[in-house]
Design brief:
With 124 residues, this protein is α+β, with helices and mostly antiparallel strands. The protein has one domain. Helix content is 20%, strand content 33%. The protein has 3 helices and 9 strands, in the order βαβββαββββαβ. The strands form 3 sheets. It has a 3-stranded antiparallel sheet with strand order 1-5-9, with no helix packed on it. Strands 2-3-8 form a 3-stranded antiparallel sheet. Strand 6 and strand 7 form a beta hairpin. The longest helix is centred in the C-terminal third of the chain and has 12 residues. The mean pLDDT is 82.
């Protein structure tokens, strides 16, 4: 599934150079995970990184850096866009995968982003 234009809070995407365990844990803290042989596994249940369409990003109280993805952007193989409700979309894993792999796929997707600063008094 691709959307017209999607926006993601910049803090929800991994930055290149993320390698510290606490940075990884912060990114996957809202996801359901389990451990297998002491490796963190992200469970593919539709939960993921919140994304916004243009209308919902302008209605949100989010202030700061956001990543805009052009129309027609599709996530890399292994990720999918799921709809949890009207205007509520998430990027989530298609199947259970290691947290490291999930972050690698998010980094791959972030290469297509344009970074913008969202102000409270101005629409994007």
């Amino acid at each position: 599934m691709s959307l017209r234009e999607i926006y993601i809070d910049s803090n929800s995407l991994p930055k290149f150079g993320y390698s510290r365990e606490e940075d990884v844990n912060m990114l996957i803290s809202n996801l359901d995970t389990t451990f297998l042989n002491n490796i963190s596994i992200v469970i593919a249940n539709g939960k993921g990184i919140r994304i916004f369409d243009q209308e919902s990003i302008n209605q949100s109280t989010l202030i700061g850096w956001v990543c805009r993805f052009p129309a027609g952007t599709t996530p890399p193989n292994g990720l999918r866009i799921t709809e949890q409700g009207p205007g509520q979309y998430y990027i989530s894993p298609e199947r259970n995968m290691t947290a490291t792999r999930f972050i690698e796929l998010l980094k791959e997707m972030s290469l297509k982003a344009i970074t913008l600063f969202k102000r409270a008094d101005k629409a994007i």
